[in-house]
Amino acid sequence: RKEVEQDPGPFNVPEGATVAFNCTYSNSASQSFFWYRQDCRKEPKLLMSVYSSGNEDGRFTAQLNRASQYISLLIRDSKLSDSATYLCVVIDSNSGYALNFGKGTSLLVTP
Amino acid sequence: GAGVSQSPRYKVAKRGQDVALRCDPISGHVSLFWYQQALGQGPEFLTYFQNEAQLDKSGLPSDRFFAERPEGSVSTLKIQRTQQEDSAVYLCASSYQYEQYFGPGTRLTVT
Predict the structure, then answer these.
(1) A90 in contact with B, Cβ within 8 Å
(2) Phi and psi based region of residue B16 (left: phi greater than 0; alpha: psi -120 to 50; beta: remaining)
(3) Which of A76, B18, B47, B59 has its CA 20 to 30 A from that of B53?
(4) Burial track B71-105 (b if 16+ CB lie within 10 A, e otherwise)
(5) What pLDDT tens digit does each residue of chain B (111 aa) get?
């Protein structure tokens, strides 16, 4: 069983919609959490870190629920340019540095 | 400034050939990571360097995989006697503190 699980989607939403992705992780000792974005045939890029108190960056909101061991990403007012794969990432608690990636959730925003 | 660069961007190898993939990290980044991303999957950790020291090679899938970073800058990932299951994108990332910056990857196809 992978340490980080995500619904692969695809999520097809119209422009302007709100969409939410969830991710679960298995290691309760995990300390650091991130969302990365990966465009087709490109490298992953850090979208945002996820903090226990929740954090917002423009149209993007990330939340962490330690008790249930899940992480969420909410995208409001979707743009065509938001179409990408969103990767849930947890720092491996044994090493403290290796990134554990989920398989990614594919989002397609349509006109 | 210059990001992480990797070469070649694409490599086709016949089964049984040896390949060498190069990574040029961001100047001054102490930490360097290699990841393998199979089609439709998230990246999987392979190995980690701090300067020239390879501190973790637990993710290397077999002894056919070898990585080095002799002067603490450029790194090479070598795969001997390539197999079809080695076909993937090989991503290099470097970091100074906690954020890992990824290169564009080398897409390896073994025929």
Answers:
(1) no
(2) left
(3) B18
(4) eebebebebeebeeebbbbbbbbbbeeeebbbbbb
(5) 589 999 999 999 999 999 999 999 999 999 999 999 999 999 999 999 999 999 999 999 999 999 999 999 999 999 999 999 999 999 999 998 878 999 999 999 999
Q: How far does B82 lie from chain A, in Å, by closest CA?
A: 22
Q: Which residues pair with B36 in a beta bridge?
A: B44, B90
Q: A62 to each of A19, A31, A80, A98, how far by Cα in Å?
A: 12, 15, 20, 21
Residue B78 or residue A53, greater confidence: B78
Contact A99 B56 (CB under 8 A): no
Q: Do B48 and A95 touch (CB under 8 A)?
A: yes
User: Which residues of B are less than 8 Å from A42 in CB distance?
Assistant: 104
Residue A97 touches chain B, beta carbons under 8 Å: yes
Distance from C-alpha of B7 to C-alpha of A81, rounded to nearest angstrom: 28
Chain A residue numbers touching B102 (CB-CB < 8 A):
43-45
Residue type, A95: S
pLDDT of residue A1: 60
Name the pLDDT band for A29 (thresholds 50, 70, 90). confident
Q: Which residues of A touch B40 (CB under 8 A)?
A: 8, 103
